[in-house]
Amino acid sequence: MPLIQRLAIIGVGLIGGSLARILREKGAVVEIVGIGRGEANLRKAVELGVIDRYSLDPVAGVEGADLVFLATPVCSIIDMVARIAPALAPGCVVTDGGSVKGEIVAPCEKLLPPGTFFVGGHPIAGTEKSGVEASFAALYQGKRCILTPTAQTDGEALRKVVRMWELAGSEVVCMDVEKHDRVVAAISHLPHMVAYSLVNAVGGYDRFSENILKYSAGGFRDFTRIASSDPAMWRDIALMNREAVLEMMDFFSEYFAGLRNLVEKGDGHGLEAFFARSKQNRDAIS
Ligand SMILES: NC(=O)c1ccc[n+]([C@@H]2O[C@H](COP(=O)([O-])OP(=O)(O)OC[C@H]3O[C@@H](n4cnc5c(N)ncnc54)[C@H](O)[C@@H]3O)[C@@H](O)[C@H]2O)c1
Ligand SMILES: O=C(O)C(=O)C[C@]1(C(=O)O)C=C[C@@H](O)C=C1
């Protein structure tokens, strides 16, 4: 029997659309209902075979669903859960793919009526592209998905969400929301803040009368791919994971200041040691 009978996906973009595609490919779901604000995107999702039907009304859209997946920008998730909560079928499992967990999980658990269950989640996989047309079935293959169960989390609901991500090809890792938000601030949110700043700095460099970004090659382009990511999504992440992002930005600044100091002093040994330590760490990432 398929794992999910009726899957409701709220926000059928890169993350929601990719999950729909892989679960359908694996025969893990009977029916997929898309929910969103933009009718053109939802119509496209039906045309592409990503969802079976759609609703612009979240309350109507979640009717009879045994699993609801929220994949809208993080600042909208709590309001969305509040809207759908009274309409959920008994036994329904609600989970999300939002990039921040600390401010989301506890309020969502409180909002759900008895007999329905929330499990916080975050696939550590993505691209700089948005929308259903950017979605693809292999997105989660060989990647990690972090789930953030709490003392309130129902065991059966957690097992269903774990199985869903395993079917999508991911290795599931569980951690508490605090650790999740600190880890992703370091490995995901800081790099985006640095990439956005770098592109703005170089794009704003005014020593020459022409824009020098056109001369950029592999180094700049590889490093800054993620600066093309959706601004509204990253606004929400910076607002919602504020404290951990600020901590990482300050921590990073210390390293950047240290490097600046080595350059200023003309400390060749220090520079080589700094770069060698970095190369060793980078080469060791599997
Ligand atoms: N893009 C990534 O690399 C990535 C990776 C992991 C997790 N995430 C998280 O997944 C979520 C979705 O990101 P995405 O990349 O799929 O974005 P996306 O823009 O591709 O898709 C989001 C969809 O949600 C819809 N939407 C936005 N606000 C809405 C609202 N208030 N009500 C209903 N629909 C709404 C949009 O129209 C769009 O169709 C975000 O929470 C993000 O933090 C993103
Ligand atoms: O590969 C990318 O483009 C991504 O930005 C994906 C990425 C990341 O690795 O930082 C971005 C946000 C997430 O919440 C998870 C993954």
What's the quick description here?
Helices cover 48% and strands 14% of the residues. It is an alpha/beta fold.
Structure in words:
Residues 5-286 form the Prephenate/arogenate dehydrogenase domain. It catalyses: prephenate + NAD(+) = 3-(4-hydroxyphenyl)pyruvate + CO2 + NADH. Its EC number is 1.3.1.12. The chain has a six-stranded parallel β-sheet with strand order 3-2-1-4-5-6, with helices on both faces. Strands 7-8-9 form a three-stranded mixed β-sheet, covered by helices on one side. The radius of gyration is 21 Å and the shape is elongated. The chain is built from eleven helices and nine strands. Helix 7 (177-204) crosses helix 10 (242-265). The mean pLDDT is 98. By secondary structure, the chain is α/β, with parallel strands linked by helices. It folds into two domains: 4-175, NAD(P)-binding Rossmann-like Domain (Rossmann fold, 3-Layer(aba) Sandwich); 179-283, 6-phosphogluconate dehydrogenase C-terminal fold. It starts with a strand and ends with a helix. The structure holds nicotinamide-adenine-dinucleotide and prephenic acid. Nicotinamide-adenine-dinucleotide (NAD) binds at residues 10-16, 36-38, 41, 71-74, 76, 97-99, 122-123, 126-127, 130-131, 230, 233, 237.
